[in-house]
Amino acid sequence: MKRTALWVTLSLAAAFVVAASASANLLVNGDFEDDNFGIPGWVPGWTVTTYWWAGWGTGAPMLDRKTGYSTFTGTGIPFSGNYFLATDTMGHANFHVGAYQSFSVTPGATYTVSGGFMGGVQESNDTAWWEVKVVDGTTSDPDAPGTVIAKKDRPAGAGFFQFREEFSGTFTAGDSTATIFLKWGRAQSADYVISAAGFDNLVVVPEPASILALASGLAGMAGLALRRRA
Ligand SMILES: [Ca+2]
């Protein structure tokens, strides 16, 4: 009887730990408030990078920890705190820039990804897009197939464009790690315009149903151990 009580207590405690951890963001520095000590291009927890074709000019843009935009009023306010991940660097076209981060997940479990993103393009014949994507495993390949959580397109010839919105989506883990990509790109060539992109409040948490499954799995393991001991 004492042993039964012990196992019930242990399994309940395990379920509680799993449930409590559900509220914790799996991402490091998802709100971009962590201090980078003023080092340009360094964002704690994230790898920031640019993929582009040098033939199109100089001055490839990068995402960086910023306080706001100067170019697009109304899109420049961080969704929370004092900082967000942004660029308002002009530059020649045909590039995409981004930031990514890998984190531990449980294969088969479903996770919710939420956040805010924003951007803008001056009027011109240029195409721009913004995307948040999650890929199975640990990778630095921005084009690896994955689940698109949120995407925004501004087609060529669409005129002045700006947006600021929150998003939410889910993915089911297929590996013990996953990588989230925050991407911004321009597809046209040789068109010189100012465009901007920004991300803030990135949060990844397990879905409640997945938490229940994990918790009942733990309880089931406790029960199995109990039966073996009986
Ligand atoms: Ca922030």
Fold blueprint:
Elements: H1 2-21, E1 47-52, E2 64-66, E3 84-87, E4 95-104, E5 110-121, E6 128-136, E7 147-154, E8 161-172, E9 177-186, E10 195-206, H2 208-229
Antiparallel strand pairs: 1-4, 2-3, 3-10, 4-9, 5-8, 5-10, 6-7, 6-9
Residues 31-33, 78, 80-81, 83-84, 200 line the site of calcium ion.
Cα distance spanning the termini:
11 Å
CATH superfamily assignment?
Galactose-binding domain-like
In total, the number of strands is 10
Largest beta sheet: strand ordering: 1-4-9-6-7
The assigned CATH architecture is Sandwich
Question: Level of helix content?
Answer: 10-25%
Question: Sheet bearing the most strands, described?
Answer: 5 strands, antiparallel
Query: In angstroms, what is the radius of gyration?
Result: 22 Å
Strand content: 35-45%
Which ligands appear in the coordinates?
calcium ion
What are the low-pLDDT stretches, counting only 5+ consecutive residues below 50?
none
Assign the structural class, choosing from mainly alpha, mainly beta, alpha/beta, alpha+beta, or little secondary structure: alpha+beta
> In total, how many domains does the architecture comprise?
1
Explain what you see.
The chain is built from two helices and ten strands; from the N terminus they run αββββββββββα. It starts with a helix and ends with a helix. Helices cover 18% and strands 37% of the residues. α1 packs antiparallel against α2. The chain has a single domain (24-206), classed as Galactose-binding domain-like (Jelly Rolls, Sandwich), CATH 2.60.120. With 230 residues, the chain is an alpha+beta fold. It binds calcium ion. Calcium ion is lined by residues 31-33, 78, 80-81, 83-84, 200.
